[in-house]
Fold this protein.
Amino acid sequence: MTSDTPDNVGLDTAARADVDTAAMDRPAMAVPGEQGTPSDRVEPTPGTVGSLSPSPDESGHGVLTTNGMDVYYGDFRAVADVTMNFDFNRISALIGPSGCGKSTVLRSLNRMNDLIPTAKVTGEVLYHGSNIYQPGVDPVEIRRRIGMVFQKPNPFPKSIFDNIAWGARINGFKGSKSDMGDLVEDALKHAALWDEVKDKLKDSGLSLSGGQQQRLCIARAIATQPDVILMDEPCSALDPIATLRIEELMMTLKSEYSIIIVTHNMQQAARVSDKTAFFNVALDTKGQRTGYLVEFSPTDELFTSPREQATEDYITGRFG
Amino acid sequence: MTGTLREREKQQYFPSEAEYDRLLDKRSRRGLLVQGSLLLALTIAVLALVTLLSTIINDSFGLVAQVNQVEPEEIVASHGYDPAAVGLGDLGKDELVETLQGGISNNVGRRLEREQRFYEDRLVFESQAKWDEICAEGDAPAGCSSGERNQANVLLLVEERIVAPDIIATDTLVGSLLNPEDFEQSVEESFVANPARYGDYTFDQVRFQWRAWFSWQFITSPASASPELAGISTAILGSLWLVGITVLFAVPIGVAAAIYLEEFAKPSRINDLIQTNINNLAGVPSIIYGMLGLAVFVRLLEPITSGSVFGDYAPNGRTVLAAGLTLGVLTLPVVIISSQEAIRAVPNSLRQAGMGLGATKWQTVRSHVLPIAIPGILTGTILSIGRAIGETAPLILVGAAGFITTSPKGPFSQFTALPIQIFQWTALPQEEYRNLAAAASLALLVLLLILNAGAVILRNRYSRRLQ
């Protein structure tokens, strides 16, 4: 595969980026105790990261780590050998040209790709240190912990209230009716939608505008108490004002959630994300297009001094 | 952007102005031609429907030539009234019972009384001692427990037993409206040409009157050997039972199978095979299903379909249950396919949204896919009702009764159905049966319309709820 060289470089960058963020941005962050133990397989350069980590929780393992992940659709390898580390309570952006597999990577992080019968993931995806593709892991539980917001707002054709309550209900929410009301209110407040809809919770979710619908979907995802939210081009169907509101929302949400966003919009990645991964696509000898990770760096670094020529070409608009 | 065609070359490949105009004319003409053919197709379809309906209606109403054994006027006169002023229906119950007593044999009278008494306080045909004896028996006739006949009921008996009308010729609606004289003339000619055919009747006794073959009396009366009195209540009830059993059997199973195939089945050779088979089964001729029903439901499962395992039993497996199950199997592929299509039409984004929140597949299907698919599933139900109510061939095979006068009382009853009744009437030579068959066809269409309207209302209610 042609992806060998860039991948190695990408790993180095990722590792270095971890050092930076761990050192500068996380002096005393409260991280949930369920975080996994460090593993040598995960970090190709354990020495640097480990020595800079103040505690085991800050060992450099992010909330999600992929390790040599390949994604196949049938025999076709869509994404090759992705190794990256997503930080706690940060926004990570995945950018790249069409067909580079960034959405595929995102969907592999909470096993949404399982819904495609031919999809297959090899390698590891570690969530708090344990592999979500390990036999015996129920994808249903993974998806509850790692929520997802889709490209097109897709509220259920139900009331605004039920849109949010449903996720909690099916996940075994035991609270009373008023507890459920509090949960819904809380989720809507988190999604900065409460003030707009508090008087019409019984209205259909479809009666809202596109931007409101997307925030409803975010509220819906929050209500099941995840700690990671995956967003697959959440603003591509929205106008600039609605996009801005979602971006502001993401900035406030990152104090409580780790967010991974796929975007086509480089400015958006530059505006909201802490770290950015650039994916590119390589043609093999049979003409198959396989995506690979080029580099994963702190956002300001990636956009000002990219390590790879391909990244620079892409962000300066020379291709893609 | 590689610019293989230079500007001048591009110009060459396009037609000149004049040529373009000519081509445009040609294109427009072709469009109009296609539009015209489409309209023609629609016209043919509408014409076919109109012809069908008008044929049925044409035979369902019209003039009849009728002879009465006893003229109603005679009866009225015999009670001392003026026939010009008083009709048969104006007579009191006592007078009608009296007429009946004078006109029918004691045997027939006793039978009628056992069906239902004429008076609460006295017996007309039966002796009190015998009556008490009969009613003390285990299977006492209905007359022992039911109330007395009213005037209208006795009037019907008088009309049926005493007046005993006999229709000797019928005319169509169009003929009756446009030239009734022709009809009268043809009946008269027939009397002249073939007097033996009419026995003791003379042309003077013939009454020409309007008759609605499709009438309330027709719908509510059971089958009868005389076409003047024949009705279709048994057949309507039989058809309703059939539709009920068919829907109860085919819809739950069909929808469940469709959900499995669409939502849970992984793509595999076996599932492909099943899918192909279902699609093919939808096109299998219904007579084949009839043979299946005969072999499986009537013969093999006779203990169940005859109800003998449940205690309540029919003499054999030729029951409404066996026929309903046969029609259920027949409509199953249609239900499955239309439900599958309805489920497939639910946007995938809703499934992803549900699954993305940590719902299981079934939770997602139950809460988000099925509510949206229900209108489409009901469309499949409508189709299956339409098929179940119109099928004749399989019913003949599984043994719908040719002539029964008792309505089906449960799943283990013998039955007949509207299409069977129509089929049998059309096979009979007398003219009246053609009119009866037309009226029954009209009833079948109306029944189908009512059932479908019900399903459509249900469907619309569900569709509205989603908005």
Q: What stands out?
A: The CA atoms of residues 348 and 369 of chain B lie 9 Å apart. Chain B touches chain A through 22 residues (CB under 8 Å). The two ends of chain B are 47 Å apart (CA to CA).
